[in-house]
């Protein structure tokens, strides 16, 4: 069994979530049916929605269940865009592709004008740039969208401040909290209240995904403020406030709720435990390979996800390192996407001001609920050898480059 250090990609389902799923799958009934069998399914569904809402600090009615995080982000961004007259979308640099590809599609097909907001060297949104963009003709801004925490480098954004800036300008904010959920406390109502969000301005929509917290793949949620105006993407039977039609997946919702409840109950102890492991992993990596540079916020600043370590390794490709570690039985990630099988330099590191070369040798190591000291030890033991081999492979690649 490989040592699994890629919890940000997906984390193993929790036993309570598997048990809840298998049990609920054998229950029949469409929650929209009038008869008692349907009403029993509806009760299970609504209890699950309440439990998920309790972990997000929102009302149950504000939880719109979706087919995963990507759908939630699409609904949040396209839905808000289509519900408002403005054309401009303010987007933080270094977002997940669920956001990047959605706003680029809106620009290509729906006349949206994208304004990328710069990040600082740690991956934090530059607030004065956001304020400046918001002050310039706010009536033409459809929405602001930003990650709560970056899925590659783990930097946590000042969401209440961002929401307050959007609220002052009367503009809605969508937050992709998919990487943050299960690693940070999230309180939708408190962020709205603390940032002065009223009606449809400030924080109005927030995306999460179940498989990042030990729930099943294929279910997520958009938390949508009661007062937000949104266009539906999927039309049909009018389920879920007519925002997301379609027969609801009771078993997946019940499993999602079981995972969310368990994660929420253990959050303070688990995240403190993970942060200790993370700090040991970071210190051990830099001691083992002095060429390694930590990307993202310094752990001591408290605005780094407790489960995230992300490094640049000079002189090698992140993918070579990933393959060599995999051969040594350790599963990690580069964190960035491949285009048609060709590794791309990390667009997040580029948004943080790094060169394309620096953005190539990146490695993301992420911890989760099952991670142990032994996992960290296994990674640290395999790393120096893998790095030495990756560096020589990097030189060999250059010697046989197709460019020559
Ligand atoms: C920040 C972020 N946004 C969106 C997504 C997409 O979520 P899902 O895999 O549930 O579609 C992910 C998953 O990698 C993510 O980390």
Task: Describe the protein's architecture and organization.
Strand 5 (141-147), helix 6 and strand 6 form a beta-alpha-beta unit. The protein has two domains: 3-9 and 267-403, Aspartate Aminotransferase, domain 1, CATH 3.90.1150.10; 15-260, Type I PLP-dependent aspartate aminotransferase-like (Major domain) (Aspartate Aminotransferase, domain 2), CATH 3.40.640. With 404 residues, it is of the alpha/beta class. Helix 1 packs antiparallel against helix 8 (250-288), helix 5 (127-135) runs parallel beside helix 6 (159-169) and helix 8 (250-288) packs across helix 11. The protein contains eleven helices and 14 strands. The structure holds pyridoxal-5'-phosphate.
Comma- or semicolon-separated keywords:
single chain; 404 residues; Aspartate Aminotransferase, domain 1; Aspartate Aminotransferase, domain 2; 2 domains; three-stranded antiparallel β-sheet; disordered C terminus; binds pyridoxal-5'-phosphate; PyrdxlP-dep_Trfase
């Amino acid at each position: 069994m490989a040592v699994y250090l890629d919890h940000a990609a997906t984390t193993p389902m929790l036993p309570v979530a598997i048990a809840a799923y298998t049990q609920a799958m054998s229950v029949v009934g469409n929650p929209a049916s009038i008869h008692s069998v349907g009403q029993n399914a509806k009760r299970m569904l609504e209890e699950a929605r309440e439990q998920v809402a309790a972990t997000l600090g929102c009302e149950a009615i504000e939880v719109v269940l979706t087919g995963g995080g990507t759908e939630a982000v699409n609904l949040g961004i396209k839905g808000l865009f289509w519900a408002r007259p403005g054309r401009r979308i303010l987007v933080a640099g270094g977002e997940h592709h669920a956001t990047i590809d959605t706003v680029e599609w809106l620009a290509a097909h729906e006349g949206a004008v994208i304004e990328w907001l710069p990040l600082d060297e740690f991956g934090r949104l530059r607030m004065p740039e956001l304020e400046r963009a918001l002050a310039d003709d706010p009536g033409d801004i459809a929405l602001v969208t930003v990650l709560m925490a970056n899925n590659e480098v783990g930097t946590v954004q000042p969401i209440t401040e961002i929401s307050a800036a959007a609220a002052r300008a009367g503009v809605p904010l969508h937050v992709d909290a998919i990487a943050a959920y299960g690693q940070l406390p999230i309180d939708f109502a408190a962020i709205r209240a603390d940032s002065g969000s009223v009606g449809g301005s400030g924080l109005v929509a927030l995306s999460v995904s179940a498989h990042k917290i030990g729930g099943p793949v294929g279910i997520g949620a958009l938390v949508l403020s009661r007062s937000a105006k949104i266009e539906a993407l999927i039309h049909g039977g009018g389920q879920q406030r007519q925002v997301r039609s379609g027969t609801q997946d009771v078993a997946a919702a019940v499993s999602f709720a079981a995972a969310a409840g368990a994660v929420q109950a253990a959050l303070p102890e688990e995240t403190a435990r993970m942060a200790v492991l993370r700090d040991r992993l970071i210190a051990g990596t830099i001691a083992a390979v002095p060429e390694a540079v930590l990307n993202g916020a310094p752990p001591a600043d408290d605005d780094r996800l407790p489960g995230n370590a992300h490094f640049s390794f000079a002189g090698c490709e992140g993918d070579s390192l990933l393959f060599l570690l995999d051969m040594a039985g350790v599963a990690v990630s580069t964190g960035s996407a491949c285009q048609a099988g060709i590794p791309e330099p990390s667009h997040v590191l580029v948004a943080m001001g790094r060169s394309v070369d620096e953005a190539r040798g990146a490695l993301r190591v992420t911890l989760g609920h099952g991670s142990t000291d032994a996992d960290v030890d296994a990674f640290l033991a395999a790393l120096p050898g893998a790095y030495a081999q990756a560096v020589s492979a990097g030189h060999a690649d250059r010697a046989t480059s197709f460019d020559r």
